[in-house]
Amino acid sequence: MTGGDARTVRAGRRTVQVRRPDKVLFPGSGDAKEYTKSDLAEYYRSVASFMLPHLRGRPLMLERYPDGLDGQKFMQKNTPEYYPDWITRVELPKEDGTVLHTVCDDSATLVYLADQACLTLHRFLSRTERIGHPDRLVFDLDPPGDDFEPVRAAAGLLGELLDELRLPSALMTTGSRGLHVIVPVNGRHDFDEVRAFARDVADTLAAAHPGTLTTAARKKDRGDRLYLDVQRNAYAQTAVAPFTVRARPGAPVAVPLAWDQLADPEVHARRWTVADAADQGRGNPWAGVLRTGRSLGPARRRLDKLRG
């Protein structure tokens, strides 16, 4: 329902007011379509059933653009006092105090965040009940430019290595330039253990392919090689959530992929947008992959054997 300068959106058991629904968040230009705040809210409502399993119980960092893509952005960790009391929060310690993070547990929260011009949701790799023990490990494949072929090749190599270590893995476009490769872990390892394991996997792969892959954190040391980034596997670091919208022209979306889709020449990091990402979700490309987290102990022993 639309009335005056607001639209009422039904989301689950609640109704949410989307103010200034016709405000343009993604200006149209060239081949990029224009999208409004109302479009963003409707998109997040449409993918809620696919997206919420990856958000529930996880603290968020929110990337907001109150004046649209061409305006100023800010990264929001603390939940403002004016947020409705039905939105879940979790208070976590930091060096000089605490942070009151937003947690997205339902579709109404997704729609409310769209009303706040939150384009992108970045999630913790751990859940609030075991905040120091991640249940996801993420490799971020970051290419030096916009060519997707090095990303495709690196993902294939990493997938083969993880198979050799007998670890399940899931593939996701980032909606930007690269891919994420996600491994479900059992939550018994702390962040230091998980990041050390991820770093050793990345170092092993880079050592086997030194001309095309690197783990060098400084851009000046990478040259034209793809960066195997494992820095997100640390406490209070975040990664973009599946089905989140990215702040780029045309509103591209980070979507789960099945591994066999990697060979499709039409697949690239920004292949899906708010116009068709829900179709990818209906295909359930991660069916069963992330259901059971693995211990890293056996994989660590296999990796150490490979490394000699």
How does this model look, in words?
By secondary structure, the chain is α+β, with helices and mostly antiparallel strands. Helix content is 24%, strand content 25%. It is built from seven helices and 17 strands. The protein has helices at 37-46, 48-51, 107-115, 149-164, 191-208, 277-282, 297-307, and strands at residues 2-3, 6-11, 14-19, 24-26, 35-36, 60-64, 74-76, 88-94, 97-103, 118-124, 136-142, 170-173, 179-184, 213-214, 226-229, 238-240, 256-257. A six-stranded mixed beta sheet has the order 14-15-11-13-12-17, with helices on one face. A hairpin with a 2-residue loop joins strand 1 (2-3) and strand 2. The longest helix is centred in the middle third of the chain and has 18 residues, at 191-208. It is globular and about 65 Å long. It starts with a strand and ends with a helix. The model has no long low-confidence stretch (mean pLDDT 96).
